User: Fold this.
Amino acid sequence: MKLITAIIKPFKQDDVREALSEIGIAGVTATEVKGFGRQKGHTELYRGAEYVVDFLPKVKLEIAVPEALLDQAIEAIVKSANTGKIGDGKIFVTALEQVIRIRTGETGEDAI
Assistant:
């Protein structure tokens, strides 16, 4: 099992969720986060004053997947989150040692 952590632009969240649903992934956890990478920040004008926005709004998606679906899930995220512009985001894949469904006690892939 793997844990996919994807940092994407907020307006792409629904597109990614739909793409994951199409390949059979139903469980996604989304968190509104702020951050920056190569995109850095940008300058905005508010009431005549200029200020720098260092941390940009992003959405962090966490998806637990069986190894068999890993490549399909990554491909779905990349295709649906891509705008071709800087700041599209990143995908991190980490090993998932154990998953337990609290309600039933199921473990492993059955708990996903």
